[in-house]
Amino acid sequence: MNGIGSTLKAVWRIAAPYYRSEDRWAGWSLLVAVIVIELGTVAINVLLNSWNNRFYNALQERNWDAFVHELLYFTVIVTIFIAIAVYQLYLNQWLQIRWRKWMTEHLLGDWLANANHYRMQLQGDAADNPDQRLTDDVKLFVDRTLNIGIGLLNAVVTLVSFIVILWTLSSEAPLHVFGRDLTVPGYMVWGALIYSVLGTWITHLIGRPLVKLDYRQQQYEADFRFNLVRVRENSEQIALLRGERAERQRLRDRFGAVVDNWLGIMTRTKKITAFTASYSQASVIFPFILTAPAYFAGKMQLGGMMQTASAFTSVQGALSFFISTYRTLAEWQAVVARLDGFETGIEAAKTLATAPDTVRSVAAPGAAGAIRLDDVRLRLPDHRPLVETSGLDLRSGERTLLTGPSGSGKSTLLRAIAGIWPFGDGAIRIPEGASLMMLPQRPYFPVGSLATALTYPAEDGTFSTAELAEALTQVGLAPLAPRLSEDGHWNRTLSLGEQQRLGLARALLHKPQYLFLDEATASLDEPSEALLYRLMAEKLPHTTVISIGHRSTLDAFHQRRMTLERAGDRFTISDPADAPTPA
Which among 540, 574, 569, 577 is positioned nearest to 557, based on CA atoms? Predict the structure, then answer.
């Protein structure tokens, strides 16, 4: 972020959609209620300012009846103030959770839509750690935006209300210096203005580096947390490699960045706190210094002096809004920058998917036709050429084996067919309404019940318990059938071979028209692999199967073989007419 102007533009871009959304009536109603209550608190403060004059005059004059009357008046006013303050907090929190809920759902939807999350990673986007941006940053944005906005409104209304009072009091008690009255219209107002502007300027000079420090702190904290999660998710491999010492050092380095940046925040906060604390304490006595000569000269009573001091404090506090909230403003600006970067990253991913020079997925008429690749040229994210092919058909009902050296782009070709690889150009024509399923070497299972993991991404209840148990039994996982309702982290509790069997059970349930197996049986022994391929041929006779694999034994289960071969700086697919005769 470069300055407050760009921050405010980003705030508008992030915040405005909520107040135009389907929840706008509730949002606006709550916001207006919070604002009205805030105006009410300012009105009560104005009443209390006048009360100061009467109350202290009653004390000075030793007027018991006036004293009791003012105490009763104060009790009523303060009771009303407490009641509306409680409801303001309640309504503010209600608005926060509604706003946060809408923003979270909105950002989640955009992030997960059409594989944007995947393309953002491919771009190496600066919007790192989306978990933090969708949790901490959204929460802080809503909280800080409301509190800063309401606080600024309070400061403006307070300033307008009390500046009139202070100007009037300045004329009633003229500036008294060395026994003489000096006519300086509104001298109290000018004193508060000079005092506050000077304090704000010095505070900004001292605290300006906090914006960058707060931004980095959130980034370092998120990086440290992310790497802790990575260690937990890969604990088995780390233990097998005896990598604990290396991980400890790596985590220490990440946490070291957290500590070093925090020390920078501490140093800068110490300086700004020293100044703001001195500024705040001096502001308590400053109005008395200005009014004391007039008071001791008999130009004003004690009540007038206390009212003037109260009004001065209110005006000075309003003018000093940025001083009192500078630390919060710095944190808020960093949060805005992170959320703005996240939204920018999502938009860049959307643009990448629809750019003219990208691989296009085209719906071809007829669900029973072939997947056809026309003039497809795939590139790496750095624009280096990878795979080139044209006029290639993946015919319906045919089982095809795709082979080639490591790094030749076999998996990338499948990603392009799935519609998530944008780098390149050309058209991939997929029969309209066709269902595709991709099974990678390490399948993904959401944390939850085994039934949910097995049927993903279908909703719970799509398949009966009997169907699930039968699928598990068919792929050799019969012992897991009684555990269908058990919750677990199945990517961690099952071996890779069991995960691959579970992935194939998922395919048996969903019965896709096109099934892509990216070394999806590589962790199984050859007899088990053969058994599962025969099972797929039996249970999915109408499914087009495209496999990536390196074992020669796979030839027997495919009718066609395609090979990626190097041709200069890229790979091309050899003539599929050389396919082996199926067994």
Answer: 540
Confidence of residue 575 (pLDDT cuts 50, 70, 90): low
Q: Where are the domains of the chain?
A: 3-353, 360-578
Phi, psi at residue 562, to the nearest 5°? -120, 140
Q: Residues 500, 521: contact at Cβ < 8 Å?
A: yes
The answer to whether 187 and 175 have CB atoms below 8 angstroms apart is yes
- Name which of 520, 497, 506 is nearest 446 in CA terms: 506
The pair of three-digit structure tokens given for residue 537, joined into one six-digit string: 């041929």
Question: Does residue 375 sit in helix, strand or coil?
Answer: strand
Percent of the chain at pLDDT > 70 equals 91
Long-range contacts, stretch 560-564, CB < 8 angstroms, 24+ apart: 560/398, 560/399, 560/400, 560/401, 561/400, 561/401, 561/403, 562/392, 562/400, 562/401, 562/402, 562/403, 563/402, 563/403, 563/404, 564/387, 564/402, 564/403, 564/404, 564/405, 564/408, 564/409, 564/410, 564/413
- Residue 124: the pLDDT is 67
pTM, full prediction: 0.74
Integer distance in angstroms from the first to the last C-alpha of the chain?
64
Note the CATH number of domain 3-353: 1.20.1560.10
Q: Which of 447, 344, 325, 327 lies closest to 133, judged by CA?
A: 344
CATH 3.40.50.300 for the 360-578 domain, yes or no:
yes
CB atoms within 10 A of CB 136: 17
| Lowest mean pLDDT segment, chosen from 205-209, 292-296, 467-471, 525-529 | 292-296
CA distances from 56 to 53, 71, 303 (A): 6, 11, 4
Torsion angle, alpha carbons of 529, 397, 371, 394, to 10 = 60
3-state secondary structure 183-201: CCCCHHHHHHHHHHHHHHH
Max distance between CA atoms of the chain, in angstroms, equals 116
pLDDT band at 578 (very low <50, low <70, confident <90, very high): very low
| Mean pLDDT value across the chain | 84
pLDDT of residue 537: 92
3-state secondary structure of 17: helix
| pLDDT of residue 1 exceeding 50 | no
